[in-house]
Amino acid sequence: MVSAEIAQWVQQAGPPVTAAVSAYGAAVLTRAEEAAADATVGLGQRILQLVWRRGDEAGRGELERVVGEAADEQDDAYTTAVLSRLLKRALQDDAELREELAAVLPVPAAGTVNITASGERSIAAQHIGTAITGDGHTPPQP
């Protein structure tokens, strides 16, 4: 996987990983997956557990620390950024892990665009005209 592919994979993995950490906190690394778990949370949990199992003692410790801090964080954008950096490092150093994780993520359909917005008053769109967030704004008149 080249750098662009890693970046694309991390972007695709970010939402389920963030959802898993938000739902389970640091326990996401060792928690047994429940059949009733939400699909996104379950996918994020599987991704993090694969990274955790492949790591050495130092890598596992760092992952546990980062996931614990991310679980305590109230800002989803920050959590996603921190976890994304961690995933990029893990993927760059381990070709077998890249293969395992590539098999876990669903392959997006051709022409599919994934857009994610996170946080209070966040917006996301593939194409957008005027977007106003916050209070007290008057929309522009045509």
User: What fraction of residues sit in β-strands?
Assistant: under 5%
Please, how many helices? 5
The biggest sheet amounts to:
none
Order of helix and strand elements from N to C terminus: HHHHH
Counting helices, strands and paired strands, the structural category is mainly alpha
* Average pLDDT score: 76
Radius of gyration: 17 Å
Number of beta-strand segments: 0
* Terminus-to-terminus distance: 48 Å
Stretches where pLDDT is under 50 for at least 5 consecutive residues are none
What is the overall silhouette?
globular
Helicity level, as a percent range? 55-70%
Short description:
By secondary structure, the chain is mainly alpha-helical.
Would you write up a description of this structure?
It is built from five helices and no strands. It is an all-alpha fold and 142 residues long. Helix 2 (39-54) runs antiparallel to helix 3 (57-72) and helix 2 runs antiparallel to helix 5 (95-104). The model has no long low-confidence stretch (mean pLDDT 76).
Topology of helices and strands:
Elements: H1 3-24, H2 39-54, H3 57-72, H4 76-93, H5 95-104
Short key terms for the protein model shown above:
single chain, 142 residues, mainly alpha, 5 helices, 0% strand
